[in-house]
Specification:
By secondary structure, the chain is mainly α. It is about 55% helix and about 0% strand.
Length: about 150
Amino acid sequence: MNNTHVPLISSGTAGPLGVIHLPRLWLKSSLEATGKLAAGYPGCGKGYDQMVLDGLGLDRQKTLDFIKQNKPTYTQFENWVKQQPGVKLDKANVDKLNASITGYIHDDNTRKGVFSASGLNDENCKFRDAVNLNNLDDWNEFHAANLK
């Protein structure tokens, strides 16, 4: 039995605070902290993960330490986020951060790689945004790890 997990919370998912990707950041970091994150996935990468940390004004190491030491539920994590000094959760900032995530487009080679692994191409799939391409990639990784 596979003891690691492909993170299947989409980057396009928001929790009660309305910040998209924050639930995925929590999930990946939580899995990594317990040694259960599937190979090839960073617990806290330099892409969307860092965009969320920077966009909210959260300290990377302090956030990861909190998750590792406390193993919070998602709502406990959001409550901790709200208590952080200088955190930027006003509507304008959250809207700007969310727009930067949903508006991010992968380069052509990344798109073509995801499409190829999914049996798709530019003619039969119109996804261009990274959120949807990452979803396709996760679903393929999940299938390979658990259903073959």
